[in-house]
Amino acid sequence: MSRIPAKAILWTGVLYLMLVFAFLAALTLVNKIPNERILKHVRGSFSHENYRYSLTGITKMDHFTECIVLTMGLSDSASNMGSLTRSLLSPTVGQCDRTREALLRSEKHGFNYWRFWHGYQIVSRPVLYFTDAHGLRLICFLIFSLSYLLMFQSIRTNINFSFSMISALTLLVAPLYSQLYSIHYSLVWALGFSLAAFLLYSARQVGEIFKRYYLWMFGVVGMLTAYFDLLTNPLVTLTIPLLVLYWKDDWPGKKQSRPAWMTVLMIVTAWSAGYFSCWGAKWILASFVLEQSVVLEIGRKIACRLGSEYCPDEDIPVTALNSILRNLYYWKIGIFAVLSLAAVAALKTVHRAKGLVHGRRQFGNTMTFLIIFLLPFAWLALARNHSTIHAWFVAPILYPSFALLIGELWRTIRSHPTYNKKKDIAPGAGTHG
Predict the structure, then answer these.
(1) Cα separation of 418 and 413, whole Å?
(2) Are 243 and 196 in contact (CB under 8 A)?
(3) How many CA atoms lie within 13 A of 403 on its CB side?
(4) Of the chain's two ends, which shows fewer C-beta atoms within 10 Å, N or C?
């Protein structure tokens, strides 16, 4: 018995080191692409404002981070670095107003943004070599859309049409502005959608492989999230797959009589281990070429993002409650939809004199729902500084929570003795028995 865990730990370590090496090798390779053409394409198409408003004027667009992304590897200091050093230090010109001065007036600006992997460069740099920022935004939109359509079709095929429509309608009311066009946002969402589709497919077609390696799958996805993300919407690569598994109600460990909520906690642990260990690997690697103290800088940034006394946003108190409320503010349409459905569900419940959900939900199923539902809120409360200041682009991580609520309310509205006999309901879907 003791040999199995040791072997699993060994192969997990080997897989981890192989992925870290592959991540660094991929970045080193794309940093060998000549900068001249990329610089020409970026110079004529980047935004000159850090936070433009959307066409509707409803909310801001995150051009600030996009300018950092577009000019990664284009700063003056980058020309004196080798491709490996450039991959580790991540030199960038910076925010949009500095980019304008640096690229249009040939003034020197830039800094090393080494705290993230900036793995999106394996897509952005080759694309920017052939086209400009507008072309890259179009490709990002296509990546986002196609990956979602893949998940939509997978939910429709493996669960039922009702839940696929719930996923679509919830997505339509999500505040997805920057996420649709910027590479460092769209890749994270595409990863979440694609993993959800893959899990539904693998659970059906190669179920034994899925049930044996699902923790490794989520660990790898956690690493990929740290690789591509800039602390924007990382949680969606965990919660969107958990959302579809909840709807499918086909959790690994059922044969061993393990409660679903325990499986969810194991998945959260595996994803978190992959995410934070991969992020930390970049700090360790960067320390070999940095002259400053990595530990002090990282400690300062963590304290800033988790604390309330650092980086205050004007006169807004940075608290866990304010963080949650500010993010909910951007879900006004979603809240209206939930309240409307709740009113209809309440009327149906009173009319039938039944519980809020067809059939009595067991304790374990309630725990499963609550863990998945509360994960985004826990993130908002923990990273309260970051989530309060950047609520307008952090808020979309609540998408799975709203989809879960709407799904349960719809199940309540539709529940009746012949519910599971309807043709659009897949066998076992929504029963949570």
Answers:
(1) 13
(2) yes
(3) 29
(4) N
Within 10 angstroms of residue 300's Cβ, the number of other Cβ atoms is 12
Strand residue runs (E) in 20-178: 91-92, 111-112
Q: What is the pLDDT along the chain (433 residues), one digit of tens a residue?
A: 334 467 778 888 899 999 999 999 999 999 999 999 998 899 888 887 778 776 666 677 888 899 999 999 988 888 889 999 999 999 998 888 777 777 666 666 788 999 999 999 999 999 999 999 999 999 999 999 999 999 999 999 999 999 999 999 999 999 998 899 899 999 999 999 999 999 988 876 656 777 788 899 999 999 999 999 999 999 999 999 999 999 998 888 766 678 889 999 999 999 999 999 999 999 999 999 887 788 888 888 888 777 765 444 456 778 899 999 999 999 999 999 999 989 988 887 766 544 444 444 567 788 999 999 999 999 999 999 889 888 989 999 999 999 999 999 998 888 744 344 444 444 345 444 3
Residues 6+ apart with CB under 8 A from 236: 188, 189, 192, 396, 397, 399, 400
Hunting for tokens 């304290």 — which residue is that? 303
Token pair for residue 218? 């989520």
SS3 316: strand
3-state secondary structure (DSSP) of residue 325:
helix
> How many other CB atoms are there within 10 angstroms of residue 26's CB atom?
16
User: Is there a contact between 126 and 151 (Cβ–Cβ < 8 Å)?
Assistant: no
Measured distance CA(324)–CA(180) in Å, rounded: 23
| Identity of the amino acid at 210 | F
One-letter identity of residue 249: D
Nearest-CA neighbor of 65 among 178, 175, 145, 224? 178
Residue 412: how many other CB atoms lie within 10 Å: 21
CA–CA distances in Å: residue 111 to residues 53, 121, 283: 26, 17, 16
Helix (H/G/I), strand (E/B), else coil: 89: helix
CB atoms within 10 A of CB 361: 17
